[in-house]
Amino acid sequence: MRFTLRQLQIFVAVAQQESVSRAAVLLSLSQSAASTSITELERQSSCQLFDRAGKRLSLNATGRQLLPQAVALLDQAKEIEDLLNGKSGFGSLAVGATLTIGNYLATLLIGSFMQRHPESQVKLHVQNTANIVQQVAHYEIDLGLIEGDCSHPDIEVQTWVEDELVVFCAPRHPLAKKGRASLEELTREAWILREQGSGTRLTFDQAMRHHLNSLNVRLELEHTEAIKRAVESGLGIGCISRLALRDAFRRGSLVAVETPELDLVRQFYFIWHKQKYQTSAIREFLDLCRSFTAGVNRSDEIVLPSIA
Predict the structure, then answer these.
(1) Domain HTH lysR-type: where (predicted)?
(2) Alpha-carbon distance 12 to 6, whole Å?
(3) For residues 134-171, b (16+ Cβ closer than 10 Å) or e, as one string?
(4) Kind and range of the H or E run holding 270
(5) Measured at the alpha carbon of residue 188, what is the angle toward residues 183 and 190, in degrees to the nearest 5?
């Protein structure tokens, strides 16, 4: 049996999109060309790779076995192509990061990576933990940097650096003068929190699990900067990563409220698919991330790279 890399590329796109038409648009092909490629691949291999339900295609057992091997082969082929084009094996890299990491760490780390490897092409997807996990599981991105737990059976999880959430308020809020609050006091406040599905909200809910029913959640927002602005304006108190607040704390525009009764410590993690081929770009980027957190106890102590 003979098959081409282009056939595998189309197969992977159809598997990820679950649609020939969407895969064709993604690859700038006609729908008939994409459909013919899948039909020919199945004919050559003498087996079906998809279950068909109307226009929707989903991988069957054989297709699910083929997908990680096809993705790995395409990644290796891209490395060979880059090497032969004088790019030292560093080609494209797709990184997913949750909001705290994406906004306050990943962009600068990617900038440093691209300074070292100017020929590389990096795409950064910033979403919440649940979405990043799904993208890694479906081979849509190479690597995830997340701030929430991941228990997906197909995903490798490695600890990166410790992070801590902190309750905070506006300088004129009564808790600012006290500098600390009991659980009873916290349940009387109006809260501005991250949305469900985010790693930050998961950590907060776990810490407050015995008091969630008595909390007054006034606003749920998807962006940490929006939460900071809402708290500054006096709409309530919040709880996000110290990393996202260190500049505001230095300026005095927001004030930390110590909460001895709450465990708000969590981890940042690297995640990737267990069957994902580790390209040199992935390995190099992981090494770079680890180098910037070596000897650091907590995320807000990281000295970020300067990008000229």
Answers:
(1) 3-60
(2) 10
(3) ebbbebebbbbbbbbebeeeebebeebbebbbbbbbbe
(4) strand 265-273
(5) 115
150 phi, psi to nearest 5 deg: -135, 125
Distance CA 112, CA 126 (A): 18
Compute the C-alpha angle 9/54/34, nearest 5°. 25
> Look-up: residue for tokens 């197909």?
154
Q: Which residues pair with 265 in a beta bridge?
A: 164
On the question of pLDDT at 90 being above 70, the answer is: no
Q: CB-based burial of residue 67 (10 Å sphere; 0-12 exposed, 13-18 middle, 19+ buried)?
A: buried
Mean pLDDT across the chain, nearest whole number? 91
For residue 275, what are its two tokens?
């069957």
pTM (2 d.p.): 0.75
| Structural domains of the chain, ranges and CATH numbers in brackets | 5-66 (1.10.10.10), 92-161+267-301 (3.40.190.10), 162-266 (3.40.190.10)
Burial of 116 (0-12, 13-18, 19+ CB in 10 A): exposed
Check if the beta carbon of residue 140 is closer than 8 Å to that of residue 26.
no
Q: Map tokens 């990563």 to a residue.
A: 241
Band the pLDDT of 48: cuts 50, 70, 90. Answer: very high
What φ, ψ does residue 49 adopt, rounded to 5°? -110, -15
Q: What is the DSSP string of 82-121?
A: HHHTTSTT--EEEEEE-HHHIIIIIHHHHHHHHHH-TT-E
